[in-house]
Amino acid sequence: MSIADLSGLEFLQAIRDGHHPHPSIAETMNMRFTEIESGHVMFLTHADERHINPAGGVHGGFAATVMDSVTGCAIHTMLEAGVAFGTIDLAIKMMRPIPVNVELQAKGKLINLSRSLGVSEGSLLDENGKIYAYATTTCMIIRER
Q1: Which tens digit of pLDDT belongs to each residue from 45-71?
Q2: Tell me, what DSSP letter sits at residue 98?
Q3: Among residues 17, 49, 65, 104, which is most buried (max CB within 10 A)?
């Protein structure tokens, strides 16, 4: 079976299980899958020296990229083989500064899926449940005609 024959859930599980390589953004953002279920994903991540802005803190783009990834993956778990998606809208709230070299959990959850749109939410938390960022996204579902 080729990758093109896999559902979104099967594809992401293949990445998690090492049967398919992680996308390069996962390396840049230090993301690795830990949970993948229908409508739900979680991965671990941490900011490092590559993510520092000129003011010396973690750039806001770190949280935005992680939130875009986790919310998109939650939608992806529900798509059949051959169906793609693209982010239309990402709304993110930065709750507190992202720490450097502290492992955080990124959790994504599907809210609604229709034929043409997927809506999900995500959060970025530390091991004690302290929230660092929260996001919602709307994705276009791309089906071949």
Answers
A1: 999 999 999 999 999 999 999 999 999
A2: P
A3: 104
